[in-house]
Design brief:
alpha+beta, 183 residues, two-stranded antiparallel sheet, 3 helices
């Protein structure tokens, strides 16, 4: 082992032999610009044409990209009747895209939005499972607002003559009903 170390030390300390240098001839890429051709170790790839460029030529205008910003242009038109979006390529007429969509037969009017709870500030969508019809005012509300004091409960006009609390019942009738439940 000592002999091997002496041989290696002698090889690297002699003036004629030096440790091998790193060669980078196989690393990097040449810039795709025809007059530049600079070797780049960190090339930038154009997202439109896919070619590798140096830092000076990677912009669309610098290398005269044939696709340029048009490749990234993703404009759409939204149909007001069916709320579908249709691609609107650069250089085409908006009316032509619209007519093509209407003629395709895919344009069907959107379904009417589901009714929402009528209580101010509530955005709950009403379905058959989460709706409740108030017995006093006959108003459909969500389950969170099913109690008479949780929504604007007004009895129908036919019950307007009765002395009413919030929902057409007197306070004594309400207490009597509660006392029956307690017994």
């Amino acid at each position: 082992l000592a002999q091997v170390a002496l041989i290696l030390r002698a090889q690297f300390t002699s003036p004629t032999s030096r440790p091998p240098m790193a060669h980078f001839s196989d690393c990097g890429v040449h810039c795709s610009e025809e007059y530049c051709r600079q070797r780049e170790f960190l090339p930038l790839q154009c997202d439109a044409c896919g070619k590798a460029y140096c830092a000076e030529h990677f912009k669309y205008d610098s290398h005269r990209c044939p696709m340029g910003p048009a490749a990234k242009d993703k404009r759409v038109i939204v149909c007001p009747m069916c709320t579908r979006s249709m691609p609107f390529p650069a250089g085409t007429d908006e009316a032509a895209v619209w007519e093509q969509h209407a003629a395709s037969g895919d344009c069907k009017p959107a379904a009417a939005p589901k009714p929402r709870c009528p209580v101010k500030g509530c955005k709950e969508k009403m379905t058959s499972l989460n709706s409740f019809e108030c017995g006093s005012c006959k108003q459909k509300v969500c389950l969170k607002h099913r109690f008479e004091d949780a929504h604007d409960c007004r009895p129908p006009a036919s019950n307007a003559r009765r002395p009413a609390m919030a929902c057409g019942r007197s306070f004594q009738q309400h207490i009597a009903g509660l006392s029956r439940l307690v017994r």
